[in-house]
Fold this protein.
Amino acid sequence: MPSFLSKAYKESYRKTFLLSYPVIIGQLGHIMVGVVDTAMVGRVGTVEQAAVALSNSLYLLVLVFGIGVSYGITPLVAAADSSKNYSANANLLKHGIIINTILGVLLFLFLFLLSPILNLFHQQQQVVDLAIPFLNVMMLGMIPLCIFSGFKQFTEGLSFTKIAMLLTIASNLINILLNYLMIFGHCGFPKMGLMGSCWASFISRVLMAVAMFIYVYYNKHFKIYWNGFTFKNISFDLTKKILAIGIPSGLQWVFEVGAFSFAIIMIGWISPQAQAAHLVALSIASVTYMMASGLSAATSVRVGNQLGLKSREGIRIAGFSSFIMVFAFMGLMAISFISFKNYLPYFFTKEAEVIKIASSLIVIAAFFQLSDGIQVVGLGALRGLKDVKVPTIITLIAYWGIGLPMSYFLGIRSNIGVQGVWYGLSLGLAFTAVFLFLRFNYVSKRI
């Protein structure tokens, strides 16, 4: 095995970076919709910000599951592309469109019907009354977002990563503009407050999905995959193959994000200020997490390509080089978090108590950045190897068997407060990082 500074590793760093930076920006764009909403709604009031936090406790679960299922396409496309199997990728495009469209509709209906469950979480009623209609509109945006993700994962499997990045940037700029107009009622728009934020997000995501379809349909690089395209002859076996990777991938994200979402509910038992501070700190941490998840997606493609070429050494170099890259990046982010912990919350709120709590949480986030980066890259590397079942079990045990119980014990039972909740979540992240790294080392040796 070459050293981490060898020519082979340096070339791997270069290839992974060139493939990953558009994906990173694109992934960042997904989460920036929520970050912008949080920042702008924070100018409306703390109760409204707490309502966004509460609705996100369910919405983010569905969001990451939908994105995760679409990930089932990418390693299959990458493996077929390395062997120039165009007919296989044409079938993957067709089945990806169908699966993701149906998934978006089902997820919208599921959470629309489930949203009244927020009344059962013992939250302040004024927060719940704002959260439910906000959540319903945000869920409507899952339909165009899932369609966009299906096309995005197909093109990224072919190593075309820049268009999704550009469209996501454009969508976020549109979202910021619409937030400004619809939340505060500028330029003749009605002053909609909190609800203006979710309608702005919905409109921007519809435009993003339409633009992505137009690009894939008319771009010359993808013409070969549309020749003879028809929705007839749907293959159950291929659908099952995509979902066999996609559903566990979605569940892996659900287990992690679900732990943080349930933490929002626990923190709601403490105070609206603690809940708003949790949302602020989590919004900041989610920015670096989504950047790491972009590197994870690129790692999945790189490892999938090497799997298609049947190169064990190539697989291990692609995987371990990504671990090194994410460790270095997250270390730098951790230093930045600690250095600017007293300044970052001001972008989201002006309330002194919320800023004070959020600053303490940002310090905790600085330390779990390293574990978070390693575990998400580990999931991507293993997904490239089509190894998804054991990693799913690892994430379930880590977050729901270790992280959440410890969060409840430290935060609620031991009266440490919101900081205790975050200590418990940090333990779950550390467990996941260690065992996913060991899993990749084990599986890649056996290829």
